[in-house]
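Q: I'm writing a short methods note and want an example of a predicted protein-small molecule complex. Could you take the sequence and the SMILES for adenosine-5'-triphosphate and return the bound structure as tokens? Please keep the output block clean; save any remarks for afterwards.
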Amino acid sequence: MKIITVMNQKGGVGKTTLALSLAARWHLAGHSVSIVDADPQQASVFWKRQQAEDSALAGIDVYSVRLPAEIRGSKNLNSDYVIVDTPGTDKMIVRSAVNVSDALLIPVQPSSLDVQASAPTVQAALATGKPVAYLVNRFVSHSQLGNDMVKLLERTSVTVLRRVMGQYQAFPRSIGVGETPSTMFSGGAACRNIESVGQVVDTWLEGEHEKN
Ligand SMILES: Nc1ncnc2c1ncn2[C@@H]1O[C@H](COP(=O)(O)OP(=O)(O)OP(=O)(O)O)[C@@H](O)[C@H]1O
Ligand SMILES: [Mg+2]
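A: Understood, no commentary inside the block.
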């Protein structure tokens, strides 16, 4: 079992979008997947509520966790992958999630304000000694800003995953109805994007596992 916390104290960077999209991909590949929603906004819980009973993603369980102490229960979930969707603000619950996790994923938008706002999250993540990686989200293809930001991130001491999530309407459209691009827009650009991002996440997780 792998527990992966998706974190960034900056709001709206795509934590929930990434958590759900990765969950869908792993589920569709035949793995058992649980999501632990530790955000009081309960966006992942909302996603599950919108889902049709016969959805291809119906097998993904979403657990609501409100108290830092409850996060430890993630270790008892009988899933191949547990993804913890965290709030930006509640430091205690994020710390608890980090403590039980095998790897920490930090989505960040390609903007210097966002990179700057993620610095405390990165410091806290690195201090644990656990595998930490940045994943760039809402990247606009061929944009100078996007490329400059990826270069800026690569100069930090954090791993930057070699694939970026693009800006696609398919993410909000599918997530709003309890799906993800992998199911609602199968074969489309966002679906292919999350597939290649997911492959890079898999390679990163395997590499980190082998190091330990
Ligand atoms: N790659 C993308 N393409 C298009 N829209 C996106 C993408 N990623 C995120 N969004 C949109 O950006 C908004 C914020 O995304 P999301 O809710 O996943 O961020 P978050 O970090 O979980 O936010 P919060 O800090 O409030 O929990 C949502 O409306 C989402 O649909
Ligand atoms: Mg969220």
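A: Remarks, as requested: Residues 2-211 form a domain with the Rossmann fold fold (CATH 3.40.50.300). Residues 189-211 form the longest helix (23 residues).
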